[in-house]
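User:
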Amino acid sequence: MVGIGPKHPQSRKGSMHELPQNLLGPIHDFEKAFTVDRSKLKEIVNHFVKELEKGLSVEGGNIPMNVTWVLDFPDGHERGTYLALDMGGTNLRVCEITLTEEKGAFDITQSKYKMPEELRTGTAEELWEYIADCLQQFIEAHHEEANLAKLPLGFTFSYPATQEYIDHGILQRWTKGFDIDGVEGQDVVPPLEEILKKRGLPIKVAALINDTTGTLIASSYTDSAMKIGCIFGTGVNAAYMENAGSIPKIAHMNLPADMPVAINCEYGAFDNEHVVLPLTKYDDIIDRDSPRPGQQAFEKMTAGLYLGEIFRLALLDLIDNRAGLIFNGQDVSKLRKPYLLDASFLANIEEDPYENLTETLDLFERTLNIRPTQPELELIRRLAELIGTRAARLSACGVAAICTKKNIDSCHVGADGSVFTKYPHFKERGAQALREILDWAPTEKDKVSIMAAEDGSGVGAALIAALTLKRVKAGNLYGVRNMDDMKTLL
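Assistant: Predicted structure:
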């Protein structure tokens, strides 16, 4: 078959010399806009470290550095049966997890429920009633016994929340397209428990967690070298263990200085002031037109929710400002729909195995009703590579900043999220950026390895519930609000 060759390497710049002169200029402009070199990466990490430290201070900063009241890593000997509730952006998942006799092992039963679109902008009562419905369905399906003992619940609530206690959390702000009145600024645990109590469901929230903290704990359960948990998906975030003595904003609590405390960074908000991130005009448009301008600056450059939109805006820039340069005479109206393209669109372009990019051609015809020429396909491919590479390299800065702040020379990083698991070359590009930032010798193996995480929002939530009950039993009541209720679960 003519034109079908071997799989592409990560970059196909070698084919650029065959392009017509009028497309080389825009490609060079894109390369200049989206390339983040080693010195810029280091500059970003230096600022990142300062922002992490500021978030731990009394005055705080853009990065909230939320104290989670998860006070230890699991040792692999945790036991018991726990419920886990995972409220993500698209689905609600309920799991029952039994931590078994074998060290680091578990059994899991789970069900997924689609979050109705109207819930995202509905009422608080509708949200909690729906969650209670799902828990009730799960219990009825998996427990026939009438006199069911109280079940401890690990609730993965993956939205920025302030926690003075592990079984409590005040929503700072909705993300992921949610905008439900009457929840921001409120503790999310009591309204859920109230509805569960009304329904006679024997469920008590033992721990409210973020998926990133869950990722850290679940990954460390099976791998003691795990020191950081990350999410690279619809949003971006990380969690790690800090010493209580290095968190000035909780100094008044007089915790033992060497006590480990898991910090949910919420660092999608890094550099909201636009001090150091290499913003393009497309990033500026995304921020300007977003529901919350001026927020989540780092996330808007790296997360899966935005990669397709950056790509769409870049193509529209050529169409609108360089008349007749690309897709000449074709109907580009579909391309004008905001957020029509997601990260999977770029991933499919980068995964196209054919030298003549026939799969990319099919993708454009099918999705956008546009039939690009061969030179246009080369430009499209290069643009997708540049946006995907920038996201991976910037994403590595958060990991490098935590390692730098904590003087971590080597460790494993547990990573979850659709961009990490599904976007081609993301892992390799991030690893290369870490090599450049942390100055490893060319002959050295990767000292900080980012690898696929365990199920943080399910197993991690159950483990954190188990760890909480374990320390309550041992008399460590730091960060526990309702001790009497907690003791009924022992």
